[in-house]
Amino acid sequence: MLIEYLPILLLIVIALLFAGGTVLLSSVMGPRRATPVKLEPYECGIAPVGLARDRVSIKFYLVAMLFIIFDIEIIFLFPWAVIFRELGWFGFFEMGCFMLVLALGLAYVWRKGGLEWDELEHRAGRPGRAASGTERAAPLN
Length: 141
Fold this sequence. Notes:
Number of helices: 6
Mean pLDDT: 79
CATH topology: Methane Monooxygenase Hydroxylase, Chain G, domain 1
Oligomer: single chain
Structural class: mainly alpha
Strand content: under 5%
Shape: flat
Number of strands: 0
Distance between the termini: 86 Å
C-alpha cells in the first residue's frame, strides 16, 4: 500500500535536488562582482529615498487594512452574481443587507476620518482646531 506513494516521494526528492542544485550551482559558478548599483534595493525602477528604517504613519496601514477588508468583502459579489437567478428574491434581499452593512461600515470609517491621508487636512475640517499643526493646549487655571 505504501508503494502507491513512491511516485510522489520520487517527485519531491527530484524537486528538492533540482532546487538545491540550481542554488548551489549559481553560488559556485556565478560572478561575485558587487557594485554600489547592484547592492541598491530595487523597487519598481524608483530610486530609493531615505532610510529603510524610517517610520511610516499609521494612517498608511489603516487605509491599507481598510482597502483589504473591503476588497475581500466585495469578492463575495462574484459568486452571488453567478447564481443570482437561482437565488431569487431571497438572495437579492440578503445581498442588499450585506451591501447595507458594507455601506454603513464605510460611512462610519469615513466619518471617523479613517480614510484621511494627511493629518493637517483632517484637522482643518474640524471647527476650532488650527490647520497648521502648531496648536497649543489652553493653560489650566
